[in-house]
């Protein structure tokens, strides 16, 4: 029986009014590449994606969402899974109120836009108890002291592995990446390569984890 992988990817889009939103520059490329790489290795893959310019990967069930709240709900409704991988660049904040009509620039409310915190999807899934996937993986985009910050993030989020990127260069939105896989016991460096190659290496690591689990 094939293992089930659930991933998030892309940015989230947080509506201010019908025409304006808060978002970020995530392209979704690393998450989509990882979804494809896992499907190639025989995982049954569900990809919950924020808005991107990418085509839905073949052989992957892709669920399109906009906001962090939608992404959280879609993740919950597509559990259980054996592995959950949070690749999405979830907007940390959303407008406290989404206006049904386009805001006028001279309106006082516009200059006093109130923001509230979005749910942390990774942290929520990592704390799910009986419904928690066996392997929960987060990503960390860091600009300095990458390993130390990523280790701290692994503990804070309650996930099993963290994949750390050094985003001081052009990784965000770019075609290449370099990464550090922190599993608690080990740290493995993946040299600068295309996002497809990085995805393949990560998928290989995940497949090996489940082969070991099966063997015991
Ligand atoms: O705290 P930070 O945003 O740097 O953590 C990054 C990791 O947490 C990524 O795996 C990202 O997908 C996940 N995350 C999440 N929900 C949030 C914020 C981050 O799943 N609201």
What does this structure look like?
The protein has 216 residues and is an alpha/beta fold. Helix content is 30%, strand content 27%. The protein has helices spanning 29-40, 68-77, 108-111, 121-126, 146-157, 195-215, and strands spanning 4-9, 14-15, 21-22, 44-49, 61-64, 83-86, 93-95, 115-117, 135-142, 161-166, 176-182, 187-194. Strands 5-4-1-6-9-10-11-12 form an eight-stranded mixed β-sheet, sandwiched between helices. Strands 2-3 form a two-stranded antiparallel sheet. Strands 7-8 form a two-stranded antiparallel sheet. Helix 1 packs across helix 6 (195-215). The longest helix is centred in the C-terminal third of the chain and has 21 residues, at 195-215. It is globular, with a radius of gyration of 18 Å. Cytidine-5'-monophosphate binds at residues 8, 68, 86-88, 90, 118, 120-122, 138-140. Cytidine-5'-monophosphate is lined by residues 8, 68, 86-88, 90, 118, 120-122, 138-140.
